């Protein structure tokens, strides 16, 4: 028993010292740990640098072993790879924008008494694409001659693209607004002034079409919105056609004593058409003008 007491008296002082040293080390860890790390890093740095230098030298020697033709071929391969990545990135951006546009189309509510048929461009005739094209839906989907075809590029604004012509079972022809055989009544601005597309001797272009039979006292303002009137049984009122671009003054060649003619700048870009909407509805009664024109 006496021996145990003597042993305890000999060990309690070193034990207390060990505990104090451990506490001091724990409290000063943030001070001494970074210094030890830097010291160890400085000690091993020459060996690590030597290994890296050996790898770099081996890589340089490997490059020197290739001739200029081989290096040029590898550079050209990398350039093609970069070009392929750039094209894929551009395609991804185009698909993203197309997806956003389709979401706007699908979420767009149809006017009362009308239905929407979502479709896309199926075929363009290279010799007549400025006057008509073919879409991928037809009579089986409720499409009939005279139906309006629209697109939406600005949310809430329905742009008139054309009118359905010939209809087959699974496809249909779209007569664009510049087609000389298409006669369509339009309203100028917020007034009751009405004109007709493609009735003058003027020649239409891809972006502008003639409008005629305007009253002689009509006061022209550039940029006035041109919309459908709703007089045609299958075309709702208020679909945007374009904006007034020019008008004859009284006494010029295309003007007369009782009427004027001019040009309408189209809203639709026919070079970028893909997804479209065909408006179908009840026949036998004029529909109410549910679609309002953009200001």
Describe this structure in words.
The chain folds into three domains: 2-61, no CATH class; 66-106; 114-281, Rod shape-determining protein MreC, domain 1 (Thrombin, subunit H, Beta Barrel). It is α+β, with helices and mostly antiparallel strands. Residues 283-295 have low confidence and may be disordered. Strands 1-2-5-4-3-12 form a six-stranded antiparallel beta barrel. Strands 6-7-8-11-10-9 form a six-stranded antiparallel barrel. It contains three helices and twelve strands, in the order αααββββββββββββ. The chain has helices spanning 2-27, 29-65, 68-106, and strands spanning 114-123, 132-135, 148-151, 159-167, 172-176, 185-188, 194-197, 208-215, 225-228, 240-247, 259-266, 275-281.
List the helices and strands and how they pair.
Elements: H1 2-27, H2 29-65, H3 68-106, E1 114-123, E2 132-135, E3 148-151, E4 159-167, E5 172-176, E6 185-188, E7 194-197, E8 208-215, E9 225-228, E10 240-247, E11 259-266, E12 275-281
Antiparallel strand pairs: 1-2, 1-12, 2-5, 3-4, 3-12, 4-5, 6-7, 6-9, 7-8, 8-11, 9-10, 10-11
Unreliable spans are 283-295
Number of domain units: 3
Question: What's the CATH class of the largest domain, please?
Answer: Mainly Beta
What kind of oligomer do you see? single chain
What's the N-to-C terminus distance?
107 Å
The biggest sheet amounts to: 6 strands, antiparallel, barrel
What is the CA-atom radius of gyration, in angstroms?
39 Å
Q: What do the pLDDT scores average to?
A: 76
Shape: elongated
Structural class: alpha+beta
CATH fold assignment of the largest domain? Thrombin, subunit H
Please, how many helices? Answer: 3
What string, H for helix and E for strand, traces the elements in order? HHHEEEEEEEEEEEE
Number of strands: 12
What fraction of the residues are assigned to beta strands by DSSP?
A: 25-35%
Helix residue percentage: 25-40%
For the record, the CATH architecture of the largest domain stands as Beta Barrel
Instruction: Name the strands of the widest sheet in spatial order.
Output: 1-2-5-4-3-12
